[in-house]
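Hi there,

I know you've been waiting on this one. I reran it after we fixed the sequence typo, so this is the corrected version. Both the input and the resulting structure follow.
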Amino acid sequence: MKKFFVLWRNRILWMITSFSFRVLRKLNLFTRRKSYFTVDENRSDSEVTPYSKSLLRILSNERRLTRFRRGRAYREILEHLGYKEGKKYLQRIQTLASREDAVGLINLNKGNDLFGTPITFSYGNYGNVSPTTLRYISTALEIANNFEVLSRTSIVEIGCGYGGQAAVIRRTFGVKDYTCFDLPPVLKLIDRYLQGIDSDLTVKRGSFNQESKSWDLAISNYAFSELSRDLQLSYLEEILSNCKSGFMIMNSGVSNETGRSTGKLTIEEIRQFLPNLRLIEEIPLTGPDNYVIIWGEKK
């Protein structure tokens, strides 16, 4: 009976919190009559949504900042997962870690939900947690399943959101050397978020103009695959080619059911810069064009 009650409570909560979000998104797409995928040589997919403008509004208003993970424009990009998606990531965590370790990891990383007022759901014995936080934990475990991640590992992330993945990796592996490449307002939000959750991680700001730098591991949760072709080439030439290994979740470059691959590099073009890359399945699969690329020395 308790399990039945929790299930329906989660469903009702998600219906209430997602209804206006879904309706307004469809209305916006209809009235604008334009794609949310970019072919602009200087912009990513996220930059043709209201996302960029919403960041400036969030950073200029303390009340919005404390609730930014519930904002409609922000959820469009990063906080759109529901209870069912969170459950799939939880199942993946349980596959990659023992039950005891899974409980420990989730409890450890609930700190991610202490700032931004995210929508959380009850996942039984694991308690209330944001589906996005479960995704970040799952991704961290996927990375560890393929590479040895130590406290001394240097990481570069392309497209860092609000710093949620970085915070999970810091807590889980003790990594301190963390560089982010993203828009200036995003980097400011990351600083505020990490302060808000009392993380001791200080994220370095990546720059194409910095002196030649190499990293142990490159990661990207969809962001690289949503860049324009020219920006992807810049990252491959100046950043990714200097990374010993990499783990990037992709949604363009192979198939094109969603239309995202238009104006992006193909996987064969990417392979010219990363000849040892391998394609593996995204688990759980969250889109018809999705997959993961990895390169470098495996465990």
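Quick highlight: The beta strands are 121-122, 128-129, 154-158, 177-181, 204-205, 215-221, 243-250, 278-280, 291-295.

Best,
R. S.
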